[in-house]
Amino acid sequence: MVDIAEDGRTWLLSGPASSYALHLTDADELLHLHWGPRIAIEDAEALARDPLPGYWPFESPLDGREEYPVEGGPRFVRPALSVRTEERRGTEWRFGSYATQGDNELHLRFDDDGITITLHYRMRGDVVERWVTVENGGHARVELLRADAATWTLPDRDGWRLSQLHGRWAAESRLTTAPLTYGEKVIGSRRGHTGHQHLPWVALDTDATEEHGEVYGCALGWSGSWRMAVAQLPDARVQITGGAGYDDSGLLLLQPGESYTTPVFAGLWSEGGFGGASRTWHAYQRAYVVPDAERDRPVLFNSWEATNFDISEEQQLALARRAAGIGVELFVVDDGWFGARTSDRAGLGDWTPNPDRFPQGLKSLADQVHGLGMQFGIWVEPEMVNPDSELYRAHPDWVQYQPGRRRTELRNQLVLNLAREDVQHYLWDQLDTLLSSAPIDYVKWDFNRCFTDAGWPGEAYPQRLWVDHVRALYALLDRLRAAHPGVAFESCSGGGGRIDLGVLTRTDQVWTSDNTDPLDRLAIQHGFSQLHPARVMAAWVTDSPNTQLNGRVSPLRFRFVSAMAGVLGIGGDLTEWSAEELAEARRWVDLYKEIRPVVQHGELYRLRPPAGGLSAVQYLRGAEIVVLAWLQAQSHGESAPALRLRGLDPAASYECRETGEVHRGAVLLHHGLRTGLKGDLDATVLRLRRI
Ligand code: GLA
Q1: CA-CA distance, 496 to 168, in Å (whole number)?
Q2: Which residues form the Glycosyl hydrolase family 36 N-terminal domain (predicted)?
Q3: CB atoms < 10 A from the CB of 315, how many?
Q4: What's the alpha-carbon Rg for the chain, to the nearest Å?
Q5: Among the atoms of ligand 1, which is closest to the Cα of residue 493?
Q6: Is the CB of 132 inside a 6 Å radius of any atom of ligand 1?
């Protein structure tokens, strides 16, 4: 809800447990008042009466207190907005008006000599969504050098710590926490996509644990280059500023009447520790971000690790029969089905089935897969082109390039300039035709290289391709979803290179990492779960020894229980699995289908982080509880510690389906549940029900 004070210049947005307040001074300075536990409008008014400290020659009282610091005037913090017109640079705004929408949105309008800046706030549960619109109302040209989505201000506390999710290819979303010191910590991507290197998320706390204490979190919904700067200012105030684009060299040029709307930067405050913050993020994404989140995601088979580029209809069918036999619900043909794509050197751009490999097109295979009782899916990478392709031979100017410079090939491919309308039309046409040509239920949408030569010869303001590429991607996905409502989409970028709240508003799940080693995955999944729910986290069981990465040998049990923590998939070469392995796989898939509603839609409690010994997660949904536990190695003959469960009713009793034992809630909460795990790489699934 939104409360407005009598002065019409103090606003309070509240969710079930938290509030956010701001105030406009008589001099039109927009100050941050409060972000934390739920308060009343009278509390916000009291905070608004606190006078600003005075100006000094060397300090500004505005620094660390403004909602959206613009460039210009007495400000020395990082500006969220930097604008250049024919005459000048910077912003000196006057308040225009405010408006509310529904019971949870607030819009504040400011004007600066023909430029309109609107700050938007929307409360969704306890998540505050913020974004900004800048409109050129009269200038011949307005150059947006920087337009961040928001600046977040934290309350005065001693000893802030910063948590982030860093990584690289095959080692994404690893959690790290360190004390914040004076100055700025900047994370982001200058690669054109979200990147494997950082998930666009930070969390700040002073003394929180997994289940207790204050945590602030911020996450950006943008799938291109981005930046977040976490600043500890000279008087120890902390601000987080973020938005699209990595540097300040120019986002867009606004012609008269044109406007730019930033991505959404979402933030939350929780006093339930890191676990509480994650559960709020998960609930928010399931309710407001992920399409059709209430639907279960099917168990899929993906052919990539089994067959690589060497594929044919007959061989895919052999895999499909085995997949159907173990209970798979969605069969996905990965790379290699189209154009001259027999290796990564050719074919990207030509989205028609390879006639040697699929002489009857994809429809024949899709029909047979459907005949086996499974859905059918394919892999595409529409934003790319191999120089060795029909598309590139016909349109060498459709890629990003700098005139007179080398075109940098990574994985033998170039990036199409999706900002061009002819490229947008081509891709729409190809993909719409493809999805109409066969009964396709699912698309794995990949993006396998970064931008390097982001030029656009002939275009007056080539810089805009960074933003317009992402807009075109979103528009294409939205249009395809509308035209083919039965098709689900997965966001992939060499594994987890494009995972963010922006892409998740139009994809059903994400490929978490190309690393399918079940032990490495536990750390990746631990980081991923800080922000994103199990409902979108695709995870496959692959072969042992692991062929993709590290050659680790692991039991099928461990591989399954690791992948069952998210959306289960199988990615091994099933034609090589023994009858016993297939029978065991069938049992795990059946078990997963049973626990799936709890895993995919329940509340997640991280019981023990993956740190060498025993690790475990718990999902809770109504009366149902699922515990997944993994023992990496048993040392010194010691048995694995009991797992203290969370979120239970201490006065209730819980029956464990695996052992038949009945446990008191209070005992499970305080003393814990024994897992019986032993040896190396052991794992288990425990189901409990309140009785
Ligand atoms: C990327 C993906 C893989 C696979 C290959 C195919 O690396 O992450 O899962 O689809 O492309 O080329």
Answers
A1: 9
A2: 29-251
A3: 15
A4: 26
A5: 8
A6: no
Active site residue 446: yes
Closest Cα to atom 12 of ligand 1: 335
Assign domain 608-690 to its CATH superfamily: Golgi alpha-mannosidase II (2.60.40.1180)
Of 98, 76, 77, 73, which is closest to residue 10 (Cα–Cα)? 98
503 token code pair: 């892409």
543 is in an annotated binding site: no
Q: What is the pLDDT of residues 205-264, one digit of tens each?
A: 999 999 999 999 999 999 999 999 999 998 888 999 999 999 988 999 999 999 999 999
pLDDT at res. 549:
81
Residue ranges of the chain whose pLDDT lies below 50: none
Q: Which residues contact 686 (CB under 8 A, 6 or more apart)?
A: 626, 627, 629, 656, 657, 658, 673, 675
Cα of first residue to Cα of last residue in the chain, in angstroms, is 37
* Angle of CA points 348, 298, 569, to nearest 5°: 65
Q: How many CB atoms lie within 10 A of CB 445?
A: 24
The per-residue pLDDT for 636 is: 86
The pLDDT, as a whole number, for residue 548 is 78
In angstroms, what CA-CA distances link 351 with 153, 227, 316, 335, 361?
47, 34, 19, 11, 12
Distance, in Å, from the CA atom of 602 to the CA atom of 620, rounded to the nearest integer, reads 5
Tell me how far the alpha carbon of residue 276 lies from the centroid of ligand 1, in angstroms: 34
Rounded Cα distance, 474 and 381, in Å: 14
**What would the pLDDT profile of 94-148 be if each residue is shown by its tens digit?**
999 999 999 999 999 999 999 999 999 999 999 999 999 999 998 999 999 999 9
Which option is the CATH number for 73-283: 1.10.760.10, 3.40.1370.10, 2.70.98.60, 2.40.30.10? 2.70.98.60
Homologous superfamily in CATH for domain 300-330+353-384+408-492+499-600? Aldolase class I (3.20.20.70)
Domain boundaries, given as residue ranges, for the chain: 73-283, 300-330+353-384+408-492+499-600, 608-690
Indicate the residue type of 499. Answer: I
With both helix axes pointing from N to C terminus, report the angle between 313-325 and 361-371 in degrees, rounded to the nearest 10. Answer: 20
Residue type for 179, please?
A: P
**What ranges in 207-327 are assigned the alpha helix state H?**
273-284, 304-307, 313-325
Whole-number pLDDT of residue 56: 85
- The catalytic residue among 446, 468, 517, 520 is 446
Does residue 656 have a known ligand-binding role? no
Measure 535 CA to ligand 1 centroid, in angstroms: 21
On whether 411 is known to bind a ligand per the annotation, the reply is yes
